[in-house]
Amino acid sequence: MPGNGDATNQVTATVDAVSEALLSGRGWLHPAASLTTPTGRTPLFSPAITTDERHILPGTGAVIGWTSTAQPPAPVGAAAVRRILERLGPGPEPTADALHLPVTAEPAPADPRPAFPRSPPHRPPRPAPDPGHPGVRVRLAIPAVFHPLLVPGDADALAAHLIETAEEVLAGAPGTARRDWATVTAATTDAARAAGTFFAGLCRLDLAGRESTASLVAAVIPAAEPPTEAREVELPCGPATVLVEARTTPVPAQLSTDGRRRLIGTAAALALIPLPDTQVLALQLSTPHEQDWELYAAAFAGILHSIEIAWPGPPPPPKTPNPPRAPRPHPPADWDPWGGTPTTPEPPNPPRARAPPSTSPRRLGPLELTPPSRRRQTTSSGARAPDPRASPAHPPQPRTHRPSPTGGGWRTGRGGGSRAPRRMPPVPPKRGTSAGGHRRAPDARDPPPRTGRHPHQPTQPQPQPRTTTRNKPRLTPAAAPAHPTQPPPSPPPHTPPPRPTPAAPEPCSRRTG
Fold it and tell me: Is the bond into 102 cis (omega within 30 degrees of 0)?
């Protein structure tokens, strides 16, 4: 791959070639569900992750990172090979030059261009600049099924890690197979680190009883022009360039069992993400099993959407210290906290000179509603004249508040004071009784007795007795009388019979004798 994909291309092609030559058909495989486990939205820049080492977060996967301020690692490949031989037994000490490693994959002549999934609709917000840490920091989450092949540290740490990985990947295989794979992988670590790679992983899956492998590489490389065949995509961390193509990867004759060089077809995807410090984050996934490309492409898309980038933004503005508060004035010695705020007493106002009384006659103005008979009588000197009623025979009575006749309050104010008692209208006496409730003799001025009807209601005719036509012959039009029918005479008005006059009692005679 031309341009800035050469570094990741060599690492992935080398991992694929070593895996195809030394691991194919042997070892232990992971279930396919371990690759498609959904990852969560846990923030990768959390207090639990303080270094760039690989961390396993439940529900998220393996979190890896890179920091621009980290020192470049020293070559440890040759020393790690010797440590592995010391622990797994003697054998040939391989070198990268002797094995013709690393190798580079070339574009396939047919170039079928495998499809790449589109970006998912959900996009979390981009991380903001982090002024608290110097340099650029990168975090991304990958499926935990990828076995890391690079670890930070010295030769002893690398040798211990590769031996442990060989025992897991080649469980049940002979010890020489674990030794050969661990020593060859350790011999290629220096070239991968020199190319800016901070993660290289290997994945081995069991797909319905069939073996399937893939390699994943993450590196930070200098910026360069992206490939012309790539297309731009928008990721949560920013814009990126993605290139998907088919390749052919050579397997050196020194690694093959028959001693012959051969080519294998692979499908690869490369993503280039620019960083704020004029560098590029390159991620590449490759698999020699092109029939499983859709499975690996979906996992690669999830890795791209988990990338988080932080960089030192502009320093925050300095906080302006609050101005010191002015000291509060002390209250005077005679200040009462319960008496309110002390105030400075004002000087008393000088008495105003009263104008001399006017000798001109007063006129009744439009607002003077007091009649002249109730005005105060004054003398010529302005003094009030004595009241002729003020005598020992008529002592002055104290003024009292009188309730308003309407019951709306006292005269001194609207609604002030207590209300006057409500007076009920007098009840008229019953007919035939006096004011005291005693019966009296009927009078001509008494109203007429009630007869059950209104006095002005006209007299209605009395109902006529009903006559029945039972057992009587009916009249037909032929038997009807010739003379016209006259209305029946109205009955005379009903006159009540006169009341009988009681007879005078006979005098009683006392019988003697």
Answer: yes
Tokens coding 243: 């290139």
* Mean local confidence (pLDDT), 443-469: 59
What pLDDT sits at residue 203? 94
DSSP 423: P
For the chain, the residue count is 513
Which stretches within 195-340 are classed as H helix? 293-304
d(CA 152, CA 189) in angstroms, rounded, equals 11
284 three-state secondary structure: strand
Residue where the block lists tokens 């360039």:
241
| Whole-prediction pTM | 0.59
Tell me the pLDDT tens digit for each residue of 367-379.
444 455 555 555 5
Q: Where are the alpha helices (DSSP H) in 283-355?
A: 293-304
Instruction: Among 162-166, 263-267, 348-352, 432-436, name the one with the lowest average pLDDT.
Output: 432-436
* DSSP structural state of residue 442: -
Strands 30-31 and 197-207, by their bridges, are: parallel
As beta bridge partners, residue 221 has 280
Q: Which helix H or strand E contains 168, and what residues bound it? A: helix 155-169
User: Which of 193, 235, 236, 240 is closest to 217 using CA atoms?
Assistant: 193
Report the C-alpha gap between 7 and 220 in whole angstroms: 9
Contact call for residues 394 and 387 (beta carbons, < 8 A): no
Q: Are 309 and 238 in contact (CB under 8 A)?
A: yes
Please enumerate in sequence order all residues whose Cβ is within 8 A of that of 43, keeping only pairs 6 or more positions apart, or say none: 308
Of 69-73, 186-190, 277-281, 356-360, highest mean pLDDT: 186-190
pLDDT digits (tens, 9 = 90+) for 88-112: 989 889 999 999 999 999 888 755 4
Q: Which residues contact 273 (CB under 8 A, 6 or more apart)?
A: 235, 237, 238, 239, 240, 280, 281, 282, 283, 307, 309
Per-residue tokens: 477: 């039009």
- 8-state DSSP, 444: T
418 contacts: CB under 8 Å, gap ≥ 6? 410
Residue 173 pairs with which residues in a beta bridge? Answer: none
**Token pair belonging to 129:** 């600049």
The domain locations on the chain are 3-75+102-148+197-310
pLDDT band at 413 (very low <50, low <70, confident <90, very high): very low
Q: How many H helices and E strands in the chain?
A: 6, 13
CATH number of 3-75+102-148+197-310, picked from 2.30.130.10, 3.30.365.10, 2.60.120.1690, 3.30.70.330 = 2.60.120.1690
Question: What stretches of 380-476 show up as alpha helix (H) in DSSP?
Answer: none
